[in-house]
Amino acid sequence: MIRDHLLICSEAQTxxxxxxxxxxxxxxxxxxxxxxxxxxxxxxxxxxxxxxxGSGGVKVDYIESATANLGTPTVLASVTSAATPAAGTVLxxxxxxxxxxxxxxxxxxxxxxxxxxxxxxxxxIRDTQQNTPMPDGL
Length: 138
What we know:
The chain is mainly beta. It has one domain (about 5-125): Sandwich (Jelly Rolls), CATH 2.60.120. About 0% of the residues lie in helices and about 45% in strands. The protein contains no helices and nine strands. It has strands at about 10-15, 20, 25-30, 40-55, 60-65, 75-80, 90-95, 105-110, 115-125. The strands form two sheets. Strands 2, 3, 5, 6 and 8 form a five-stranded antiparallel beta sheet that branches. The chain is flat and about 45 Å long.
């Protein structure tokens, strides 16, 4: 997996309560420009610290907006985790879709009851590591 520190949108983003969390880091991309041309760029969201509470899990949105603060976002892709995802769980790993607005980023929405603890990482990367577990002794 190739990581670029400048493409990390959120590192250990705290989730508490049941309010939407717009990630503070966004990327400015010229409207209509496909940043995934050639080798696809991927959106990767992982659980850094086990989510506690939030019986309905966490909804992760990859969003775009005309403003840097991601106001009035348009959802380009969305996934919902199982309840209380554990540390290391991959919530989103997908090639990013084409954007039509100038800014892209992520938004997290706790579902169900209030989350009392949990941290999530979100980033744009070139590729993801996909190991196939093999039995011992091969």
